[in-house]
Amino acid sequence: MYYINRKWPVLVTGATGYVAGWLIKRLLESGVTVHATVRDLRDQDKLKPLNRVASTAPGTLRYFQANLFDDGSYAEAMQGCRVVFHTASPFRLQARDPQSELIAPAVQGTHNVLNQATLTPSVQRVVLTSSCAAIYGDNADLLDLEHGMVTEEVWNHSSSPEHNPYAYSKTEAEKEAWRIAEAQQQWTLVVINPSLVMGPAVNPDITSESFHIIRQMGDGSMRVGVPNWGIGVVDVRDVAEAHLSAGYTTHARGRYIISGCNTTLLEMARQLLPKYGKHYPLPKRVLPKFLVWLFGPLINPGITRKTITQNVGYAWKGNNTKSIGELELKYRPLSVTMNDFFAQLVETGKLER
Predict the structure, then answer these.
(1) Which residue of 65, 94, 193, 341 is 20 to 30 Å from 80, comparing CA positions?
(2) Is residue 4 part of a domain?
(3) The domain spanning residue 201 has which CATH number?
(4) What region holds the NAD-dependent epimerase/dehydratase domain (predicted)?
(5) How many domains does the chain have?
């Protein structure tokens, strides 16, 4: 079990993000002083959920303004920190200009934060939030892998700025992180590679692709059915726990696939049927692949026909044994993740009966 040293402050970048919210909550509840960076300190509405957590927790929350593109922007926030959690990175599947909206912020942000870590003598450990998207690009890629399963040794070679730009941005950002880490000897790098992150948020008004997916399951957008799309899913609270363990487990090294289950879109929706099936138009069947190929890009311009061809009809399998063995993770069941997530949307008025 890891031991949290409360003496030293820690830095969490992208503090108002989905994963960062739960990570900061756990750190504050553990009595840690958290240096939280945000893009704009004047946007107080975004800070209210974290302030509520901090008001009852034994830890201390301090805000700093920083920008992923500005070299030296994280210097003040990182001062005195022993652990740096770099979670800040855009997550969206649709981008008009992938280079400026996804790739540059991910790579340049990682470069600036990790370079600053090397310039800050107190830093001993950097935990980077990467993604399983840096490991594989399309489900069809798994056919070339041993046992058809992704492991920490695998890298995404099929994505590009034109095809799966988000996955490409995560791959390039993580490669940049390892390049910087291997050029110095002051701190160790641990990388967290989650599959699709689902579950309730500390800030219920947050925008994330995960929220779009579950909202569409309940608002009728997927009423006619869903593609037969294999996917890995992990609870956002387990991802936060993985970061915490990665930050404070002395022997933690390298990459960790963080994924609770190998599932499908239909199986995710099925978890909601017992409690919500009567009152919400949840999807109950799989759509034929040719229909998805024909109409999918018209309904969702972010999904191309190449993406549909390379993913629909293929299973997804991820090996999470390293995270269970070394980080001692205990994953929540899919039913808990999906029902807690859906309940939050209902309770906060994001979904109506």
Answers:
(1) 193
(2) no
(3) 3.40.50.720
(4) 10-246
(5) 1
